[in-house]
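Async update (no meeting this week)

Hi team, since we skipped the sync, here's where things stand on the single-chain job. The sequence we agreed to prioritize is pasted below, unchanged from the tracker. I ran it this morning and attached the output directly underneath so nobody has to dig for it. Comments welcome in thread, and please keep replies under the output.
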Amino acid sequence: SYLPAGTGAVASTVRAKLRDIVDVHDFVTGGSGTVASPWTGWDGVFLANVVSGVSTYKEYNFVEGIYSYTTPLVLDSLTGTEFRGCRFIGHGLVVLQFNGTGIAITLKATGTNVQNIGMENLTIKGNANCTDILYMKDVEKSVFRNIRLEESTAQALQVDNGILNLYENITVSGGGVGVMTTRCVNGILFENSTTS
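Output:
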């Protein structure tokens, strides 16, 4: 078993503790992470087996490289995906290359707002068939930092009913209309963010 130091610490298994932080690279099935040979397979395996079973307060790390995927990444509390408190963090230059149709990444809560999401150090690239790159609905008290959104045909970033979120160093380029906010967007802060 694993018992952290300190008064009041709660014991868990070593296995459970090691699963607190997930390395997405463990789910890659092909490629080498380069422009010529991006990593593949993680969208099928990772999305089906990891995201559908996301537990609260987990960290998902992406090591440097290009991750190609065609299935839109959808985290929706209605489907049973519990992602409150999850962090998605890139280490080095991480590119999530969406090659499918529609919205590249959707974060939404159905029925109640989802809180404390973190997304840092990622480039998310769309394509000619990508409408929005990052769509968020009912997300609150969350931080999105050092995110580059490229190549959408509609909005690169769409925020619907975002509350008390921080968007820091968000860069939007290559088509689309940049950032769109709708419905009761309260207390959101954009710092050092640009569109081109």
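Quick observations from my side:
The helical segments are 14-18, 42-50.
The radius of gyration is 17 Å.
Reply here if anything looks off.
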